[in-house]
Each structure stands twice: as structure tokens, then as C-alpha cells.
What we know:
By secondary structure, the chain is of the alpha/beta class. The chain contains 16 helices and twelve strands.
Amino acid sequence: MREDDKNTDMKEDTKQLTFGEISSEVRQIIERNKIPDHMVELSYERNEFFLRIYPTEIDEKAIHEVLSIAKKHLENWRIHTFDKNYISIQALNSSIFQTENILDNIKIRVSALSGEKIIEITKKGYVRPEELNLVISCIKRFCANKTHSPIEQLAALGCPVYYPEKEEMTLQNYAGYDSVKKQILETVIMPVQHPDVYDAIVKSTRKNFENNRPKAVLFSGPPGVGKTTMARILSKETGYYLVYVPLENIMSAYYGESSKRLALIFDIAAVAQNEKIILFLDEIDSLAPSRNEKLFEATRRMLSVLLRKIDGIESKKNYITIGATNRKEDIDEALMSRFDTVIEFGLPEKSDIEKILELFARQLSAGNRSALAEKLTGFSPRTIKDICNRAERIQARINISTHGMELPDVAVYHEAASTYAK
Ligand SMILES: Nc1ncnc2c1ncn2[C@@H]1O[C@H](COP(=O)(O)OP(=O)(O)O)[C@@H](O)[C@H]1O
Ligand SMILES: [Mg+2]
């Protein structure tokens, strides 16, 4: 190393930026590049600088890009872990043989593991200018000029989005459940399709105008009775995007981060003011108070975020929240109170089962379907569909060995059903 190089090095080493300077710099970059606020999180706590970037997309290529950014800005560093989906970089001291306080140096952690997509940069003590440049390069590269719509961002955050125009399920091919369908039509579909009619009535009946259309609806019933399917039908019938929020997944995959993640999902949804969105909170009972102490804390935090965010989003137009649960009795009271309508999906009655069989075993006579329906009471539509599948496979096996082309008759369905327990 030449003498003057050494000098600049020493000068650089002593240059420190205050958190105020760093954050005003970062803020400027965010504003100049029109980066959505929720993509970057910056804090300084207990003498530690902390930056989090939530890019919508991180893949293997992005991980390599972070490496090359680090290489450009940091002199000495080493990779702790390098996995296809995960990298952890740690800066070394200017003399790589010196290990003193090495753990306080700047660290970069990138994760593209399923669900968790995050770039995290941390540094104890002060931040040097070249470290700030590294931070800014990362922000620019992973946040700026992204034209991803909120819908795309939600999908990237692990909330699959169903597009109404692509949905094939309709109310017509949802068999039976007439009273459920009627309630859905009256409480959600009609109000969405004709808001003016509802508003006109309220304007004349109430002293103070308020929206009387349901904002949050709870679907309650045992597994396999068509709650998720009905949410997708709702999207199709109303033209709203269905954003599937897998609470259970968020709870388990982002342990410790789960409530932040949930807040982020709602915040992104809330900026999509021009989009019409159904937020579908599936398995909402996963937020039921847990007996496990650690989990208890996590569920409590998730719950409080959820309560706050549901309130926030309810006041906006173009949003419907739908929750689904198999265990309504376990749901926290405050959460329960957020739902203005509860729709009960019970197990199908015999007449419903006959209609389901019309969909899945249409070759059977009405008499045979009725007899089979009798045997299938107590099963959910999902299990009934499974039984029909199994009957078809049994028949296929027979046809293959006999070179026949028969369709399963009622006896095959009875045989298939006999292996299922109620
Ligand atoms: N009324 C119905 N008519 C036709 N198929 C149904 C009906 N209800 C449920 N299904 C089918 O059963 C399966 C399970 O439904 P799903 O919506 O996932 O249930 P849940 O969300 O209540 O657990 C899906 O394949 C769905 O298409
Ligand atoms: Mg479901």
C-alpha cells in the first residue's frame, strides 16, 4: 500500500456519520426515486444501525448483485454462509489478521427463502461514508424504479392473488348450499354491484349518512365445506382481486417477524386505492390465544396488528375483508366483533350432497345418487369429491385390466366411500 493511500484510509476510518445524517440521506434517495415507504426500514437502536429492505423480488441473481455491491464498497469482507437462497456477508477489519471487535463491523444478510425476502444491513457504532454508499446502492438497486403494482407486491410477499377474470368457479357450479349462497348474494355481491341503491336508501332513512354495506364477513364451518372456494367465487362475481393472506404461514414462517409482516401486507393493500380488493384471511383461528408461552406472545402481537389494520382498511372504499375459520369458538372476542356478518357453512344436507353428486357423478341415476347421498351424509364436499375421485380411479384400474370402457356404477362409489371415516 502506498503511503498516501494509507493516509486517506486512516482519514476515512475516523469519519463518522450521525444517524441523522444517514437517515436524511436515505430519505432523500427514497423521495427522489419515489420508493414506497414500506420498502425501507431504517432505525438506530442501542448503538446499532439497522436497515431493512423488503424488495418485491429477490432471487439468486439478486444475491449475486448484493455480492458485487458489497465488493465495490467494502475492502475486506468474507462470506459466512452462502446458500442458493441465503447469503450472509461480514466486513473484516482493515487488517484482515486483526480480529478485534470484528463482530461490530457491517453485516449484510440477504434472504430469498420462501416467504422471507429481505436484505438486512446492520452495523454497531458509527457508519462510515463508504458504508452509507453501500446502503444507498442497495436501496437504489432493489427498490427504485420498480413499477410493481401493489397487487404484484402482495403476491411477492407471499399472498397469492386471484384475478377475478381468471377465476373459473361461479355461483352456478357451487352445488347446493342455497341459504349460504343467498346470504352471500345479499350481504356482499349485491351491495358491491349496486352500491348506489344501498346508499340512496340510507340517505333517506338515516339522520347521518353512513355506509351500511358489510365490510368484514366471517365464513365459519368445518374443513372442506367450500369456504375458500366461496371467497374465490366472490372475487369472480364482484370483480375484486382476492388477496389470500395465509395467517398460519405468516405465523410459522416469520416467527418473530410475523406481526411486522402482517402490518406490511395491510399497508401495501391500503395503498392500492384504485384497486378493488378482497383480503381473505384464511385460518383466522391460528391467532387464537395459544397455551404455549412463546407462541402466546407472537399471536398476541399478530392479533393486535390485525385488529388495528382491519379497522383502518374498513374505513376505505373498495376493500372487503373476509375471514375463514374452522374454530369460531376459539376466536378472540375483539377480533370476532370486527366481523359484521357471520356466514355458517355447515356440512351438506342430503339434498346438497345430491347436487354435489350431479357435478361429480353425473352418469348415476337420480335414484342411485339419492341412495349414495344418504350414505355420504356427514362428509364434507371435499371428502365427497375425494370419494368420487377414488371411484373413478378404481374404475380406471378395472378398465385397464379388462380393456373396457365402463363408467363407475353406484356400487363402485359405495366401495370408495367405505374406506373413508366420518
Ligand atoms: N358446494 C360445493 N360444490 C362443489 N364443490 C365444492 C363445494 N364446496 C366445496 N367444494 C369443493 O371442495 C373442495 C374443498 O373446498 P374448500 O373451499 O377448500 O373448503 P374449505 O375452505 O372450507 O376448507 C374444493 O375442491 C371445492 O371445489
Ligand atoms: Mg379453506
